[in-house]
Amino acid sequence: MDSTGPSGRQVSLPSAINLSTFTAARMKEIKAMRKALSENAGTKMAFQKLPKHMRRRAMSHVVKRLPRRLREIHFNQMKKSGLPPKTSKLSRKHRRFHMVEKWGFKLPKQPCDKSFRACYRATTQHCLVQDLSYIRCIEIAGAYPSIISKLAKVTDSKIGLTFSATCFCEVYLNVGYGSGWDVIVPSVWSQAFFMSFVMWGGRVGGLRETESIAFEKSQCDLLYPDTTAGEQEEHVLTDTYRDTFFRLPPNKRTNFNKFAIASPFSFNWKLLISDWSGQHCSTFFVLRDRLVLKEIQKFLTGGVAAPLLPDNCLIPVKLLTEKKGVCSRFGLICTIEEGTSRDEIVEPMHKDLLAQKRKALRQEHKSLLQKLRRRRKRCRKLKKPSSPTDIDILTTYRHKMRSLWLPEPKTIRYSCIRPVIGFIKHGAFSFTFGQSKGLGYIAGSALTSLTAKNKVLIRNPNSQKYKAAVLDIVVE
C-alpha cells in the first residue's frame, strides 16, 4: 500500500503487520505508558479519583478503606507529605442500608449514601442489583391442562398475558426501562454472587428503588388499592403520616382545616365514589381492562364519546404539571372550567371552626392534671399510697384532640372551591420526563365532568395554590 510521506514522496507501507513483533518493538513505550497511568499525574489524591459513592470519610488517613490498586499510590503520597497513613484494623460494624420491618421481614429500604439519582442512572445505563429473596416461590404440580384451566380463573386476557400465553414463550424479556434478569441461586451462594455483582459495578438498591422504577414506568401501584394487601399498605401509610404529624408541636402543624383539605393523610376512595355516584359505596375496584382504558384516553384527547363505566370504579391516571412545582402524595385532583385562567386559582383561607374547641379541651385537661398533681402531693404528705395516674384519661384526651385536628371527612368532592375527582398516590420529580409527575386514581363517575378534557388542576395538601396539569390514562 502506497502513501504520501511528509516530504511529498510516495512511501510503501506493508498491507499487514505481525502483532507480536510490533508489540515487542514498542514494549518500552507500553511500559512507560502503564507506569504513567498508574501513578498520580495530576494534583488529586488517590482517593479523589474514586467515584463519589465509593469514597469513605476516613480514606485520607486509613489506607485499608481504599481499593487495593490505589493503596500503594496513596501510601507514597502520604509519605511525601510527612504524614504516614494509619493501618489500624477496621470495624466491620457498618451499615449499608436503612432497614424497615415489612411483610414479616427486615428489608432494606434505601442505601445509606446519597444514591437516588445514581440508582436511576444505574437502571437506565448500567446495572441495579436488588435482593428479592423475601419473595416466595410457589411450585404447582399436576397435569398441564388441569393447571392451566384452574389458573385461567385468576387471569384475564383483557388485562395482560395469561398463564396459557406465557407457557408458549420460552423466554419473555421486557425490553425497556426497568427490564432485567432474575438470578436464582442457592442461599449459601447468595452473598458471594451479590458481592461479585457489586464489585463489577452493580449499584445496590432497596424498596425505595423498586418504587422508583415503578414510578418512572408510570405504574400506579405495586399493590392496588382494591386488594387486601393494598388496603393494608394504605392503612400503614396513613398511620405513619399521622404519627409524624402529631409528633410536631401544635404551632408547627399544618392547619388542614384552614386549607380545606378534608383527607390529608388518607385516600378515602369510598367517600369519593359515593360523592360522585350519589349512592353509598361499600366496595370498589380499579379499572384494568386495556380496551376500555384506551377508549377513555381517546375521549380525553377528543373525537369519541365517553364509554359507559360502573359507578364504583377507579381509573388509573398520570399527571404532568404544565409549569414548575412538584406533585406530592395525598394531593387533590380537581376539575377545571374551560376558559378559566389557570394562573390565578388559589384556595381562600377558611375559618377553623374547631380551634375554640381545641383550646377549651386543652384548658380542661390542664386543670384536670393540676388536680391529680395536688392529690398525689397530699398522699405523699399523709404517707398514703397514691393511685397511679389514670391512663384512660390521657388516652381519651389524645383521641379527642386528634379528632379535632383531623376530623372525619363528610365529603371529598365538595371539600374545596374546585370539585375533587381523585387523589395523587405517588408524586415526585420524574427523571424520565424531566419534570414533576404524579400517579393516582380518579372516580369513574367523574369522567364526564372533565369539561376541559385532559386538563385538570392539582393541589398539594400543604398549599393553597392550584397547578395546571395534563391528565393521561395509565394503560399498563
UniProtKB/TrEMBL annotation:
The keyword DNA repair is annotated on this UniProt entry: no
Top-level taxonomic group: Eukaryota
Pfam family, one: POP1_C
Alphabetical UniProt keywords: Coiled coil, Nucleus, tRNA processing
A single GO cellular-component term on record: nucleolar ribonuclease P complex
Coiled coil regions in record: 351-382
Domain called Pop1 N-terminal: residue spans: 22-93, 95-142
Record-linked InterPro entries: Pop1, POP1_C, Pop1_N, POPLD_dom
Transmembrane regions listed in the UniProt entry: none
Domain POPLD: from-to ranges: 180-269
Key word Coiled coil present: yes
Entry protein name: Uncharacterized protein
